[in-house]
Amino acid sequence: MRAVSIPTASCAALMMMALAGCGGGGSSATSTSSLASAPAAQLSNKSTQLSVAGTPQGAVSSGQAYSFTPSVSHASGTVTFSIENPPRWASFNASTGQLSGTPQAGDAGTYADIVITASDGQSTATLPAFTITVAEANSSGTSADVSWMPPTTNTNGSTLTNLAGYYIFYGTSATSLTQKVQVTNIGLTNYVISGLTAGTWYFAVTAYTTSGAESGLSNVASTTIS
User: Which of 33, 57, 117, 211 is disulfide-compatible with 126, CB 3.0–4.6 A?
Assistant: First the structure.
């Protein structure tokens, strides 16, 4: 899958997004957003206790090598790692926390709720659950990797504390995004959409909260698949 990075314009409501498409060409634009960038995933009990950090890649194509290794700090002893729900095509190193492997064509799909935990014998720290989407490799390019920046504030400027997920809207017209994908893992910042035919495709993202409130659409980004 050949990705084409497309930085995007500012979001009118909660977020901004970027799009990387597959195939030939696309358009690009750059701007700024009033929203602060989300920090790398991190969880720690106190600044003097074990902490683990890192942002796993959320998408990979079949035949493409994948590797993620978390970083740790404030360890008081030898650190060991454990994992929940590892992808069947990947191996896990309990000494380093590295998750790595090369998915094959038969491994295409979404692998959700992957959790990596570190322990130094006195305390533990866990990365937020994440998802890896494996797309089928296709020389003609029939998928797009949509990415976005998670919102951190509400439209009134208050801190956003009840984010529940995202909706990705897409279609072949910028004014008619007729297809929709729901992303329920708030730790994700990108998602691979497959099965796209040749032509120009348009994408936008909204965020929604646990109470059901939904933001307006982000700016619309596009990519052309040949």
Answer: 117
